[in-house]
Amino acid sequence: LLGASVAVTGVIDTGTGDVITAPPLGWKNVALEQRLSEGLNIRVTIENLPNAINLAEYRFGIASKYMTTFLMNTALGVGSSVMLNGYLHRGHDRSGGLTGNVVVNSDADDEQLRTLDLSAGGRGVLVEMGMSVSEAETLAPVDATHMLAQVIDDAERNDPKAIAALSRAGQALGVFMAYSGSVIQPEAYIISGLLSRVPAYANACKVSLRKHLGIRDVTICVSTMTVQAAARWLAIGNYLIDNDLETAELDNTEAA
Question: CA dihedral in degrees (75, 196, 190, 237; nearest 10)?
Fold first, then answer.
């Protein structure tokens, strides 16, 4: 083994490999790189999931011909990643991409204020299905995932309520991507994750994105990259392509 890579949903200090916070796992300030590196006796890279997917698509996948991309990853919540001229933008305190907590509806709305997670993520789909905002926000991840899977199954069976809920959530993501992307001006927009593979959601997002950008000629890609594949490509890039294999093998032999 020349090295290992891990993709985590959360805030990662890529300088130290520490997981600052990973809400789905209940982690805070976990020295993950150090623990894995010492336990496995190999080099380890830790990256947050949207960045891992964006980097993999940029180096090996659907975005390989673009230098600047804007990616939104969808699951129960949403996260973002920006590639600027071939380099990941990490932002202040390496917290770039933490878009899920951004409030996306105004005080003028009759409904309760909702974050992007609760408007465009899987929890937002559950709200669109009739769940209260507070219930969707506090629902345990395993329960929320099960309920979301049921909505997706219903949509595949052409249930109009499920399709409408997924479409409204996709529209919300498209609006956010349009406003954010108008500043970044990426060559390509990418949507990834569970919801991106659901036609009702993805199609609504694309239509909404084009509408709010005010242009039709925009490149929108749908990534099929899984968490596992993103982590694999991260390892391949770091430890096979970017490194001298003879030197890496020598280092590992000496370490052993």
Answer: 70
> Phi and psi at residue 211, in whole multiples of 5°?
-60, -45
Q: Residue 215's pLDDT is what?
A: 84
71 torsion bin: left (phi>0), alpha (psi -120 to 50), beta (else): beta
Alpha-carbon gap, residue 135 to 43, rounded angstroms: 42
Q: Which two tokens stand for residue 12?
A: 């990662």
Is residue 46 within 8 A of residue 33, CB to CB? The reply is yes
Sign of CA dihedral 119, 197, 94, 178: negative
Q: E-assigned strands of the chain?
A: 4-8, 11-13, 18-22, 27-30, 44-48, 69-74, 78-84, 87-88, 188-193, 220-222
Residue 158 dihedral angles phi and psi, to the nearest 5° = 65, 30
Beta-strand pair 220-222/188-193: parallel
- CA–CA separation, 56 and 229 (whole Å): 8
State the amino acid at position 84 in one-letter form.
L
d(CA 189, CA 170): 14
Q: Which two tokens stand for residue 148?
A: 């979301």
> Contact 193/75 with Cβ under 8 angstroms?
yes
Count of Cβ atoms closer than 10 Å to residue 253 Cβ:
8
Q: What tens digit of pLDDT does each residue of 59-117 get?
A: 999 999 999 999 999 999 999 999 999 999 887 666 555 688 788 874 445 567 899 99
Tens of pLDDT along 160-187? 999 999 999 999 999 999 999 999 999 9
Q: Encoding tokens for residue 47?
A: 């990256």
Count Cα atoms within 13 angstroms, Cβ side, for 67.
2
